[in-house]
Amino acid sequence: MAILRTCILALMPQSWRASAEAATREWRVICPNCGSTNTLWDLGGLRWKATGSKVWPRRCGACGKIGVHTLTRG
Ligand SMILES: [Zn+2]
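A: This is the predicted complex of the input protein with zinc ion.
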């Protein structure tokens, strides 16, 4: 996912890139099993202009369990 993001960002104008990074850093990904949080940016994600879903099935880096993680802003 980080590779895809890098490709997308490389195609963007500089001003868009900064905006996309700032917007992505506002989003937090919360594990339903252990409650650990990470920023979406740190997990290699990209969210901009509020596109995409607000849930993300993935394996948690903290507890190792697969669960539907919730994305919240702020
Ligand atoms: Zn967890």
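DSSP finds two helices and four strands in the chain. The CA atoms of residues 17 and 50 lie 15 Å apart.
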